[in-house]
Design brief:
Distance between the termini: 131 Å
Oligomer: single chain
């Protein structure tokens, strides 16, 4: 009879548990059925969490919840029988008290009770599993902060209570956080990030949120009247790391993008992340620590995006055009070459390179433009050669970003070979650089060009950081003296000494020298006196479209009028 009753009660107990996934809510009713034939007075659930590699807690944590009380007016013994289940990192205990005077259960009662508690344990495990899966879906594992999903859910919740107008959105990146890997092991760096997350949480009030998008990128949704406070807080936050048992202070600083939200300007909730994120990117490019998004910055960012996204269609639609600025022998007027320059017909306005090249150089997208210009130049030379018309060497500019392409030298030579271009008909122009890794790539590229018998030129020579060493160490064919050296109303003896020394050194190293930006006869006289007879500039011609440049090439020279003007 007892076994039948136990079996019937266990079935009833299980059916009650099926009513609700929340063990805490349904436990009173479930254990009520058990207490009808077992002397069960009270059940308390106690769960102990221990940190490990698969959870997001930092310190050991214990959670206690009452599951069942037989009668609140019933006096029970303080004795609790402990029934333990589960693994070491999440130990689940049921603390049970008997209605007997001493609170103890008989061995038979304990054995029977453990059967019911085993069923409850499975239910509790399922509850924590579902909660864990839900939390994992909305939580960044390393820091324990909301991930993008959890962050946006909280943002929308806050907006329902208030409005976008009440908030400021932050997007911040931890500066130099990766360097901590040199001071601490990987696990400790993760723990430092958890501590940092806790420090951020301390700085929030109700209806605010902070999120971790992964890596060293964080976001925050802060009430406007507290935005300055929060900004000052996250500029620099103190925490610590453990090394060989010692607490080592760690200061975490941020680069920060900020956007004051306005309901009328928010067309999609994602802008809560996107707009301050754009401000952060702007801050990085401008090497600033903090940038508030303004209409002016937004317009600049939007323009950059239009340029970046519109390049391919502009090329395909014929809106990108190659212009040519002639290079001239100052003594004879002969056209000795030209530099290929680019113009963009952007919405009816002809943009010079300054209006779009720096934008494209933020990524290797500039390569699409540079290779397009090279192909245009090669096609032009090939057509003129087929027609029996004269050609001159054409300089084509290549960005420092192009040098990141592993096989760039092969691509250049393949393009030239495709159009049947002789090696002396193209000059590749590059600019010097201050950064050692870029210098190594530049040196490697120049050597490859030399090995392929293709001439190279250092553009804007004299504006870099290592100009004199460049002409000694880099295997270039030509240097182009920057216009800043001669762009003065009066050229002094000091100018003559500087420019003269560069020209003299280049000649000793058997390098060609050309000067750009020659706009007047005084500059011509200055350069000839120092031994530089090659130049380009507005004195001869501005950059020309191909039709006008073709006429100059066919003629072959300019009339030497600048010397006459000088005498007058």
């Amino acid at each position: 009879m007892k076994e039948v009753l136990k079996s019937k009660t266990l079935r009833e107990f299980s059916e009650i548990l099926l009513k609700d996934d929340n063990s805490i809510k349904i436990s009173q009713e479930a254990f009520e059925a058990v207490s009808k034939w077992l002397p069960l007075g009270k059940v308390v659930l106690e769960v102990s969490f221990t940190p490990n590699d698969t959870n997001i807690i930092i310190d050991k944590k214990r959670v206690s919840r009452p599951l069942f009380v037989k009668d609140k007016g019933l006096e029970l013994s303080e004795y609790q029988e402990i029934f333990s289940f589960g693994p070491a990192d999440r130990n689940i205990c049921f603390l049970c008290t008997s209605t007997c005077e001493d609170g103890h259960f008989t061995e038979e009662e304990k054995e029977t009770l453990r059967i019911f508690l085993s069923e409850m344990y499975i239910h509790v495990e399922r509850m924590y599993l579902k909660k864990g899966l839900k939390k994992a879906y909305v939580t960044q594992k390393v820091s324990g902060l909301p991930n993008q999903v959890g962050y946006m859910a909280k943002v929308l919740e806050c907006v329902k209570k208030n409005s976008y107008d009440a908030y400021t959105a932050f997007y911040f990146n931890l500066r130099g956080f990766g360097l901590l890997n040199y001071e601490f092991d990987e696990k400790e760096v993760d723990v430092i990030l958890k501590r940092y997350g806790r420090e951020l949480k301390k700085r929030l009030v109700e209806d605010e949120e902070v999120g971790h998008l992964g890596g060293d990128n964080f976001v925050a949704f802060i009430k406007k009247d507290r935005s300055e406070y929060f900004l000052n807080q996250i500029k620099s936050i103190q925490t610590y790391g453990m090394y060989k048992g010692k607490r080592i202070p760690v200061t975490i600083k941020s680069t920060i993008g900020i956007y004051d939200l306005e309901s009328g300007n928010i067309h999609h909730p994602g802008e809560v992340i996107g707009q301050p994120g754009a401000a952060l990117n702007y801050a990085r490019r401008k090497r600033r620590n903090v940038v508030w998004m303004t209409s002016e910055i937004k317009n600049e960012i939007d323009y950059d995006k239009q340029i970046y996204d519109g390049l391919t269609s502009a090329i395909n639609n014929g809106n990108i055009t190659t212009y040519y600025q002639p290079k001239v022998n100052l003594e004879t007027g002969e056209v000795i070459g030209a530099e290929a320059l680019v113009r963009w017909n952007y919405k009816g306005t002809m943009l010079s390179p300054d209006g779009f090249v720096p934008i494209l150089e933020k990524s290797t997208r500039i390569s699409e433009l540079d290779f397009f210009i090279l192909r245009q130049v090669c096609r032009m030379i090939a057509e003129r050669k087929r027609a029996g018309r004269p050609v001159v060497p054409i300089s084509v500019n290549f960005s420092k970003r192009d040098l990141e392409i592993p096989n760039i030298s092969s691509i250049i030579t393949n393009i030239m070979d495709k159009y049947g271009i002789d090696k002396d008909e193209i000059i590749i122009e590059v600019t010097e650089t201050a950064y050692s890794d870029e210098q190594e790539r530049l040196l490697s590229f120049l050597r490859q060009m030399r090995d392929n018998d293709i001439s190279t030129s250092i553009d804007d020579f004299g504006t870099g950081y290592s100009s004199l060493s460049v002409i000694r160490e880099f295997p270039v064919s030509e240097i182009k003296i920057d216009k800043s050296f001669i762009d003065k109303e009066v050229l002094t003896r000091e100018d003559e000494a500087i420019v003269g020394s560069v020209i003299a050194m280049a000649r000793l190293l058997r390098l060609q020298v050309i000067t750009e930006g020659v706009d007047n006869c005084d500059q011509v006289d200055f350069l000839l006196r120092l031994g530089c007879s090659s130049a380009q500039g507005f004195l001869f011609d501005k950059p020309l479209n191909y039709s006008d440049f073709s006429k100059i090439l066919d003629r072959g020279r300019y009339e030497v009028t600048w010397a006459k003007k000088k005498k007058q």
